[in-house]
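pinned: reference chain
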Amino acid sequence: MTTERLFLTFTHLADATRHAEYNAWHQLDHLPENRLLSGVAWGDRWVRTPRCAAAGHVGDPAFAPVQYAVAYGFRHPLETALRHWTDLNQRALWWGRRPELAWTRRQPAGFFHPVKEYAAPRVLVAPAALPHRPHRGVHLTLSRTAAPDTAAGAAYFAALDRHVVPALLAVPGVAGAATYRFAEGAAAFGAQGADADGGLTLRLLYLDGDVLETSAAVERARPDWIGRGSAAGDVEHVLLSTPLLSIRPWEWDWFDGDRM
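pinned: its structure tokens
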């Protein structure tokens, strides 16, 4: 497993006319600089288009505004990797290369420990290679497990590993999966949540089929993956479960209809 820690953040724009500017900055400036760092194993970003939002599920209204998700995987030694990554973000301010700060609203989910990676047999590559393998998008699920250190929590995680994920790897268009558990908050990056949240979990499905069609097939195969009927206090409460599209350079017009 090449990812020692994962950072996940969500964003949305306060100014609907800035999507092209935001994506040009992030995809052509910010992301390449971050990927250049030796401690960054991989970095990726996805968009929650209006069609993606309509197809997904929001179990916590705080996640309703989400338009983008950004994730970075970090290599060992972790302390050095995170120090260099944080320093780059500070230097970008002094370089005058953070134009998005005035009109971007960040919602960091925090840092996560990798739990397990899976690859569908047909894709042949190692599970750890999936973040580097081209994909059309992901299906992201952020949830909270009520009591992860109890018998009920253990049974839930066993079923996820032995039954749910294998069933989804057989769905056409699903290339693989990865699961993560919360490590620590990201107060330095604007996070408002707690620094300790042992029940927060993240699940990613890597999709190489049509993202919306594959996500619909995922829900038909395992409705519990989406968790539309879950609620606070359940063994798992799904906070956000949504398809997300990979972002292709210079194709940034998903929200043009929102412009006044």
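why pinned: Strands lie at 5-13, 40-47, 57-58, 68-74, 104-119, 137-145, 174-184, 200-207, 236-246. The longest helix spans residues 151-169.
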